[in-house]
Automatic annotation (TrEMBL):
Protein origin, superkingdom: Bacteria
InterPro entries, A to Z: QdtA_cupin_dom (IPR008894), RmlC-like_jellyroll (IPR014710), RmlC_Cupin_sf (IPR011051)
Residue span, Sugar 3,4-ketoisomerase QdtA cupin domain: 11-134
Residues spanning the signal sequence: none
Pfam families in UniProt: FdtA
Natural source organism: Roseovarius bejariae
Name assigned to this protein: WxcM-like domain-containing protein
């Protein structure tokens, strides 16, 4: 995925081991290239459900599987790639102008997203062909 239009990068957060359990933390502007403006999470997702199916014009986000696992498919208009998220310390940083789709949720999966902006419907491309057209394809 090229950084010219958009990019995807795996990130790993710190982990503090303790006999009572592990602790992981995240700091906006330190572990992430943006300050966190919004946090949301998905849970009780049926195993055959698909989520995402959009791109953002400006928003950046990091996606984590806090529990269980799921697949996230990303597409920059030229290249598609699949990532499997299953480790709560490892997230997927998705920049602006990257189409994303999520599926193959395990039973009990919990997906947490840290976003660079508050919700704004005008920031979304929800139709794939419109996303491609904005990139100069078609």
């Amino acid at each position: 995925m090229t950084e010219k239009r958009g990019f995807v990068r795996e990130i790993e957060l710190p982990q503090i081991h303790d006999p009572r359990g592990d602790l992981t933390f995240v700091e906006g502007g330190n572990h992430l290239p943006f300050d966190i403006a919004r946090v949301y999470y998905l849970y009780n997702v049926p195993v055959d459900a698909e989520r995402g199916g959009h791109a953002h014009k400006e928003l950046e986000q990091v996606v984590f599987a806090l529990s269980g696992s799921f697949r996230i498919k990303v597409d920059d208009g030229n290249e598609q790639r699949d990532y499997w998220l299953r480790d709560p310390r490892k997230g997927l940083l998705i920049s602006r102008m990257i189409w994303r789709e999520m599926d193959s949720f395990s039973q009990g999966a919990v997906c947490m997203v840290l976003a660079s902006q508050r919700y704004d419907e005008a920031d979304y491309y929800r139709v794939y062909d419109e996303f491609l057209k904005s990139l100069g394809h078609g």
